[in-house]
TrEMBL record:
It comes from the Bacteria. GO terms for molecular function: DNA binding; DNA-binding transcription factor activity. Residues 8-75 form the HTH gntR-type domain. Pfam families: FCD, GntR. Keywords: DNA-binding, Transcription, Transcription regulation. PROSITE patterns: HTH_GNTR. Signal peptide: none annotated. InterPro entries: GntR_C, TF_FadR/GntR_C, Tscrpt_reg_HTH_GntR, WH-like_DNA-bd_sf, WH_DNA-bd_sf. This is GntR family transcriptional regulator.
């Protein structure tokens, strides 16, 4: 872990840094994390680290086992499945509302600009932060268009959702789906542009179900990263 010498770290700094490392899988699910090691790395007291750890526990990112230590929480399969189910239901309903609008020119302009930016990441194998923002912005655009701006927060589609984001990092980096994601986004755009509601819903659902269809491969490759309890 690299830190800048001479920098004075606060509990909030450490919280953000550790959360980020958990999110991007630098700190692997199920791996051990030590208060002492973190304190030494950032040159702070254990009290400062303990404050950060308390919030990480509240967020469900670490677990403390008496006599054993503190560990990075594994990815909950039931949570991911439920999240996928909710997103599918909500975004399908949103798409149907979008397709009822006669003038979708404003939405199409936003989507076209977004897709143009996505193309820059087409051949990358790493799930870059900027691409994640573009990915989520693409989906958010439909909700904004029908004035349902609060939906992302309600279904935890926002950037704060570390649990789901680390699944996304693992999914894309494991299966190299970047190009496929962009291709599916483009198909959604084209269906909306043509005004074909049935096709728009079908390609959207195919896109959202990609993770579900490939989940088994990920669980099989990284069994120690997951917990299969409800």
């Amino acid at each position: 872990m690299n830190t800048n010498k001479g920098t004075i770290y606060t509990s909030e700094d450490i919280l953000k840094n550790i959360a980020r490392k958990i999110e991007t899988l630098e700190f692997k699910p199920g791996s051990k994390i030590s208060e002492n090691e973190i304190a030494q790395t950032y040159q702070v007291s254990r009290t400062v680290v303990r404050s950060a750890f308390a919030i990480l526990r509240e967020w469900g990112l670490i677990e403390v086992y008496p006599q054993r230590g503190t560990y990075i929480t594994k990815i909950n399969v039931a949570y991911i499945r439920d999240m996928q189910f909710v997103r599918n239901a909500v975004e399908t309903a949103v798409m149907k509302e979008v397709m009822k609008k006669k003038d979708k020119s404003q939405l199409l302009t936003v989507l076209q600009k977004n897709l143009k930016e996505q193309e820059k990441f087409k051949h990358l194998k790493k799930y870059e932060d900027e691409f994640f923002r573009l990915d989520e912005s693409f989906h958010r655009a439909f909700m904004d268009f029908i004035h349902r701006e609060n939906i992302p927060e309600i279904i935890n589609l926002n950037i704060q959702n570390i649990q789901f984001r680390r699944w996304r990092y693992l999914e894309v980096e494991t299966l190299v789906l970047m190009e496929k994601i962009i291709e599916q986004h483009t198909c959604i755009y084209e269906a909306v542009k043509k005004g074909n509601e049935r096709q728009a819903v079908e390609v959207l659902q195919e896109h959202l179900l990609t993770a579900s269809q490939t989940s088994f491969n990920i669980w099989e490759k990284y069994p120690d990263f997951f917990v299969h309890t409800a």
